[in-house]
Amino acid sequence: MTARPRQIGLARLRQGLYRFIAAGLLPPDQERIVALASAIAVLETSVIHGFAFATWWHPLAAVLDEPPSIDVLEADYVRLFEAGVREPPCPLVESAYLPLPRGPGAFLVDLDREYRRLGLAANPLISLPVDHAVLQLEGMAALCAREAEATDRGDDAEAKRVLGDEERFLKRHLARWFPVMAHRGAVAAGDGYYGTLLTGARAFVHHDRELVTTLAMASRVATEPGVATDPRVAAHRGLEAVR
To answer: What does the pLDDT read at residue 75?
Structure first.
């Protein structure tokens, strides 16, 4: 069996976008901002322009051409994500946005169990709550990489299985709360780095849930006798404007 370049490219692009957003939501430092500016230049020359969510990403390249000082970014980070009279405007943890009938402890234990089921482990050098956006974004990036690697070696069954894992993780976790947080944060941040980043991130996560759901559904339908569905065609049908 041979690999399908367009599908590999799609999974790798998604991996890169998830990693970009995760890095952008870590506490700012000069080296990381420079790296993000270089990374978005690469993304701008990729196939990102063929997707509807790209409309919300292009402004970020302009912001990163002349980013604010680290002092300004640090103050914005604390104001948006860490400080507040009661809580920050948009905390970067899932537990702040969903009802937790069994309490936060049980929720975090369940989420940690979900990571383990997916074969994911947190970077020991990054000390963050298990439901932090950065960990969930990196988790999705790891799954995208796993999907791409399976497709590259021609293991369609494994690629479909990983795609199902992506679909479940988005529906159960990231896509349930991240767009809400990103919208709230973009409103609070206004123009500039964080407002632009969160607007683009919200658009991408929204579209990725639609994309992954469509691709997973197409792969399931394609296994039924007598049915032939091109998941690439189905993927583009799932890319609609953010509502």
So the answer is: 94
